[in-house]
Design a protein that fits this description.
Layout (H helix, E strand, L loop, with lengths): L1 H17 L1 E4 H11 L1 H20 L6 E6 L6 E10 L4 H67 L5 H34 L8 E5 L18 H23 L4 E10 L4 E9 L8 H66 L5 H36 L15
Parallel strand pairs: 1-4
Antiparallel strand pairs: 2-3, 3-5, 5-6
Helix pairs in contact: 2-4, 3-4, 4-5, 4-6, 4-8, 6-7, 7-8
């Protein structure tokens, strides 16, 4: 007896250790901290910090030394420094600062894309869990119907064929549950891959799947990371034009030194040199940079147009899905349930046939399944809307909305 109790306790403790519940906030943390692509992109930020630091360095001075030989040997030494003119250093620093900002934005954009995929997989898990619960209800209803049919067959009121039909339906419902379990395992594997795991220790997702979140209705693209990146590319190209124009201005080399020979006394030397921009005034690179600015501006307009089109389409889809979920929840499902109760009760009293019961049952469960499918699509579109708008909102399954 004591051995049995120890085995039961061990099994319970082991199950608690292995099985864990995943919520959307934990999922977000796992993806940010462990996704390999995000970790690689974070290294790019460190690299760009190094480039920015290097861009602020002044060019090193040059020390020259010459020693002669012969009847009148001379020894001279000179230290020279390049003076960058035209704001070259300033533009180079500014470009490095903007490139750092761009890399940081690219990281945030990639993070939001990975989180969107993770959140949508999370929605899929919640949806499958709801379908499993619905399928268990179907199995229970099929089992109750099987029991009722068995009693009527035993009483000689129904043909044994009806019992076979009910039994087959019961088996089919159990097979559908097995399919759902397999699909759920596949999604768990997919979601764990996003945070570097080959398999997951989680076995249940926690979230209010039936909660309909509020939709942002104004300034939807103000925080769009894609638009910010496109705008930043335009700014970078403008600075690139200034930098190319600055390259047309030659640098100044200044030097000072000392010359020593057999003649008593030392000779001080001062040097100054500057190239004459006759043949090369960097015209080609300047022209190329100007054309590049036009291209970046067109790309910005394209991104804005594409995202606005996506927003309008998603918004229309969300409005349609909201109407669908409301009608299913408040009208269709209650009516279908009521019809099933009336027909199933009438079947037991001989007023309806077995097929009438099956049809009513299918209609009831189909409407409930449609409701869950519409909720899944609604959440999918919400996260897609958050992605294009730059809104990382992981509280979707934590708060109640005014719609409910």
């Amino acid at each position: 007896m004591h051995t049995l109790i120890r085995c039961i306790l061990y099994t319970a403790i082991t199950s608690l250790a292995v099985c864990q519940t995943l919520d959307i906030e934990t999922l977000e943390r796992l993806v940010i901290e462990n996704n390999y692509q995000l970790l690689a992109r974070a290294k790019q930020i460190n690299i760009q910090h190094g480039k920015l630091s290097q861009s602020r360095k002044l060019p090193n001075p040059v020390l020259g030394f010459v020693s002669g030989s012969g009847a009148d040997p001379e020894t001279s030494g000179m230290i020279s420094q390049t003076i960058q003119l035209g704001g070259k250093r300033k533009h180079k620093i500014k470009l490095s600062e903007l490139e750092l900002e761009k890399v940081e934005l690219e990281y945030e954009k990639l993070k939001l894309e990975k989180l969107t995929v993770a959140f949508q997989l999370f929605v899929k898990i919640l949806h499958l869990q709801e379908l499993k619960s619905l399928q268990n209800d179907r199995i229970s209803v099929a089992e109750e119907l099987l029991i009722s049919v068995s009693k009527k067959v035993e009483a000689g009121k129904l043909s044994p064929a009806e019992h076979s039909r009910a039994k087959i339906q019961h088996f089919q419902e159990q097979m559908k549950l097995n399919v759902l379990n397999t699909e759920l395992e596949r999604v768990w594997i997919s979601i764990s891959a996003l945070y570097g795991g080959e398999k997951t220790s989680f076995d249940y997702a926690e979230g209010d799947f039936r909660h309909i979140p509020i939709i942002a209705r104004s300034n939807i693209l103000d925080n769009s990371l894609a638009i910010k990146l496109a705008e930043l590319s335009v700014d970078i190209q403008r600075i690139a034009i200034k930098s190319e124009k600055a390259e047309a201005i030659p640098n100044l080399d200044m030097g000072a030194g000392l010359k020593r020979s057999d003649v008593p006394g030392n000779t001080f030397q001062i040097g100054l040199s500057i190239s004459i921009p006759i043949f090369n005034r960097n015209q080609g690179n300047i022209q190329s940079a100007v054309f590049g600015l036009d291209g970046k501006a067109f790309a910005l307009k394209s991104v804005e147009s594409q995202l606005m089109s996506e927003y309008v389409n998603i918004k229309k889809e969300l409005d349609l899905l909201y109407s669908e979920t409301t009608m299913l929840k408040e009208e269709i499902i209650p009516e279908a349930q009521n019809a099933y109760i009336i027909i199933s009760d009438g079947y037991l009293n001989g007023r309806f046939s077995y097929l009438d019961v099956v049809d009513a049952q299918k209609m009831w469960f189909l409407s409930r399944s449609q409701y869950l499918d519409a909720l899944k699509k609604y959440h999918y579109n919400i996260f897609e809307l958050n992605r294009i708008s730059g809104n990382n909102n992981q509280t979707t399954f934590k708060e109640r909305s005014n719609h409910e």
